[in-house]
Amino acid sequence: MPYSRLIRIAVAVAAGMMSAVMAGAPALASSDTTPPTAPYLIYYEGYNCGQLIVGMMSSTDNVTPQSQLRYEVFVDGAPIGPAPNMSDGEVWAWFQNDVLTPGTHMVTVKAEDAAGNWSAPSAARAVTGYAC
Q1: 3-state DSSP call for residue 75?
Q2: How many domains does the chain have?
Q3: DSSP state letter for 62
Q4: In a domain, 18, yes or no
Q5: Which domain holds residue 124?
Q6: Which of 11, 18, 56, 127 is most buried, taking the most CB atoms under 10 A from its CB?
Q7: 72-65-118-93 Cα dihedral, nearest 10 degrees
C-alpha cells in the first residue's frame, strides 16, 4: 500500500473519530448566551457586628452544570462577596464583621455561568444590621 494512501486513511479515521466525539460534546461555554435562572433566597438574616448569613436554592443553566455556577451576594445593590456553591442544591454564605451597617438593608443574589452570563437578581429581601 503506498505511503500517501496510508496517510489519507489515517486522516479520514481521525476525522471520523473527532466527529463522533464532538457530536456528543456539550456546547462550548463561550457560545452560551443564555443566563442562569435567578437564585431563590431561602434564608437571610443580619446579626450583631454587621454579620450577614444568606442561603439560597441553586440556579439552573442550559449549559453550565449546577455545581459549577458562581454566586455573588449584593447588599443595597453593591457586591459584597461570593457565596460558595455546596453542590447539593443549596448555596450558603456567611459574611463577618461590618458587612451591614446598623439599620435595614436589601439583599439580593445573582448567579453566573461559565460563559459569564449573569442571572437576574433574586427577589430583594430586607435584613437588619446590628452594631456590636
Answers
A1: strand
A2: 1
A3: S
A4: no
A5: 30-129
A6: 56
A7: -10
